[in-house]
Amino acid sequence: MISIGLDPKITLEPISGTGAWYQATDYVHGDLYEAEELYQDGHSIDCNSLYFIHFPDGTIYEPAPKKKGRYFGNTAYVDGNLAFLMVDFPDDRISVMEFDTVSGETQVLAELSRKDVKDCYNLMVHGSPLFLTRQANDGKFQIIWPWKAEFPIERTETFDFRDGDKLYFAAWYEDPDYREDVIVRSLDGELMDRYPGTIYTMPNGERWKIGYTD
Questions:
Q1: Which residues have a Cβ under 8 Å from the Cβ of 5 and sit 6 or more positions away?
Q2: How far apart are alpha carbons 159 and 133 in whole angstroms?
Q3: CA distance 118 to 82
Q4: Which of 16, 106, 150, 212 is 20–30 Å from 198 (CA)?
Q5: Strand partners, 82
């Protein structure tokens, strides 16, 4: 048994696409959008913790220092490195960051004004290649960076992953039995394909399709 020297409130989660890295965080104010709501209501924001844990040795890395008013979002595995989202509420700044898994250094890839997005609800980074998206409950999917796009999606449709110039979504139905469809769209939202089943991203980055074969 390996002991990881972190606070017991820290939650350890696998990072999709790699079996070598885990994200460790706490949710002092809940998810990112919940921290934003508290800030907008006049509350001060305590920064949540963010650590990356390497498997199998258990080495702990802190990619960015904690700071009052700062809050970390999700992490994505992109081309061997770890991209993560950081919002500084007092500075009204959204930062897309990258942790180099070889050098252990962190750099800022992009900085946006928080005014560039309606809110931080489902604001997330994804690979590959890296981009920043937002999906609200208004039936629209938004690409925020490195380009801007917005297009309608189905009520139960959620973004899954990007593969080159294709965006993969998952949609669920109860008619009356529960089922799921894979929906493939272009980068501007045009419907390219759909088929029954589910796609799972495995720890080594492979994607397995269940319920559909070529």
A1: 60
A2: 9
A3: 26
A4: 150
A5: 77, 99
Residue 92 region, left (φ>0) first, then alpha (ψ -120 to 50), else beta? Answer: left
> Before 129, cis peptide (omega within 30)?
yes
Cα–Cα distance between 117 and 162 in angstroms, integer? Answer: 21
Burial class, 131, CB count within 10 angstroms (exposed 0-12 / middle 13-18 / buried 19+): buried
- Indicate the residue type of 33: Y
The parts of the chain modelled with pLDDT lower than 70 are 212-214
CA gap 166, 65 in Å, rounded = 35
145, 131 Cβ separation under 8 angstroms:
yes
Residue 86 has φ and ψ, to the nearest 5°, of -135, 130
- 17 CB-near residues (< 8 Å, 6+ apart): 76, 77, 127, 128, 201, 203, 205
At residue 104's C-alpha, the angle toward residues 101 and 109, to 5°, is 80
* Both tokens assigned to 184: 């493939």
Contact 46, 29 (CB under 8 A): yes
Reported residue count of the chain is 214
The pLDDT of residue 213? 57
Strand partners, 135: 141
The pTM (predicted TM-score) of the whole model is 0.90
